[in-house]
Amino acid sequence: MPRWFRIWEKKRGSRRTVSRVVATVGETFFFSALFFFGVIFTAMAGASTWLESWPIRAMFPEVAYVEGEGIVQEVRVVEVGTEEYPRYRPEALVRLELPERQYVRWTLRRNEISYSTEQAAWERIEGYKPGWIYPAWFDPDTPGQSIVLERTPAYGLWVIFLVLISFIVIGGIGLIYTLLLIGTSVERRAAMAKKAKTLELLREAMPAATYPSIPNDANLTNSPGVRLAFRLPIEVSPGWWLLSTFIFSLLWSGMAAVFFIAALGKHLAGQPDWLLSIVALPTTGIALAAIYQFLREVTNQTRVGPTGLEISNHPLYPGKEYRVFVTQAGKMKVKQLRITLICEEAATFLQGTDVRSETKRVVEEEVAAASGFEIKPGMPFEADYQLKIPEGSMHSFKSDHNAIHWKLVVQIRAENSTRLTRSFPIVVYPADVELVR
């Protein structure tokens, strides 16, 4: 009895097969999580550093330090550690004079340093002379407890940014690569390579000067099919749609992270900015909704899988019949799969000072329909149908202000409420062209 969910499949000859659905979903979610983690936390870390607020201020307090003048009154070396392993810490007594009051503190650096010998500690502190004025840094909120003569380099902060940026780069490259590969398969590429050897490199075509208003079908016939002559390209690739959704959620999430960390920092500092908080809440909500919609689109696209449509000949002519071969991969129970032939007329015109565009559907005929079947991983739905272009139909046309577009539309309705529509453009020539040829 076959398993419902297979992660690994068995080896067939020299080729090992795996579950493409699991692989694609796993890669997409992994790279998405890596990328969004990097973007959101980089934005939060950048905003926190710029605003000198939580959490960077809690991790690296010196980002908020300001410079002042400190007078060294005395220097000393303090013995620390244990009797077996003594350590020696150099310190200076610094007086910081501010307009409101004076502060005095034994200090040198925020991260205390110690040496194994007393002589080394004295050599470290000998550069500070009592009675001299030196630059001193302090936290404006707690100057008495934060005076230092030497600031500690924030190497850890740069490491954090470097790691987060590496997440963005790795996740972004991996995600874009995965999205652009949605809809392709190893078998498809192998079939293209095999059939390309027998495909004519130069196909008879009508001169462009004879019918300049008919769109060129070169981009529709440059890909050989597996069963039939040509594989039609899809109008809008799922990968590009996912990429656009991904970019929007990315930009909005980065902006929301900045607003969120700024509002949170104000609240933690005891100075809440309610207007900023009101703006941050819906912005964050939209960011979460955008990320959810992106992940939902990824799930739908990978569950439905690629749709392929092949045709026996091209271009097409009114009154003629052709074969179409449809393949649908994925993992789902399909209520209905419907193929429709559609012709749309588009017009662009001026209305006053506005440029308007209108589209009217003039032909809509059902080519084929299938219902009540299940698609399993590695076992795509395949069917062969007959297509007839209605007699007397207007041919494909394109000008500056008017156009007539023909296309085949595959509509999928699954049991889990998933609905997808994928369009494949075609070119219809005038019937008299075929007679001339």
UniProtKB/TrEMBL annotation:
<dbReference type="InterPro" id="IPR033138">
    <property type="entry name" value="Cu_oxidase_CS"/>
</dbReference>
<feature type="transmembrane region" description="Helical">
    <location>
        <begin position="274"/>
        <end position="295"/>
    </location>
</feature>
<feature type="transmembrane region" description="Helical">
    <location>
        <begin position="21"/>
        <end position="45"/>
    </location>
</feature>
<feature type="transmembrane region" description="Helical">
    <location>
        <begin position="240"/>
        <end position="262"/>
    </location>
</feature>
<protein>
    <recommendedName>
        <fullName>DUF3592 domain-containing protein</fullName>
    </recommendedName>
</protein>
<keyword id="KW-0472">Membrane</keyword>
<feature type="transmembrane region" description="Helical">
    <location>
        <begin position="155"/>
        <end position="182"/>
    </location>
</feature>
<keyword id="KW-0479">Metal-binding</keyword>
<keyword id="KW-0812">Transmembrane</keyword>
<dbReference type="GO" id="GO:0046872">
    <property type="term" value="F:metal ion binding"/>
</dbReference>
<keyword id="KW-1133">Transmembrane helix</keyword>
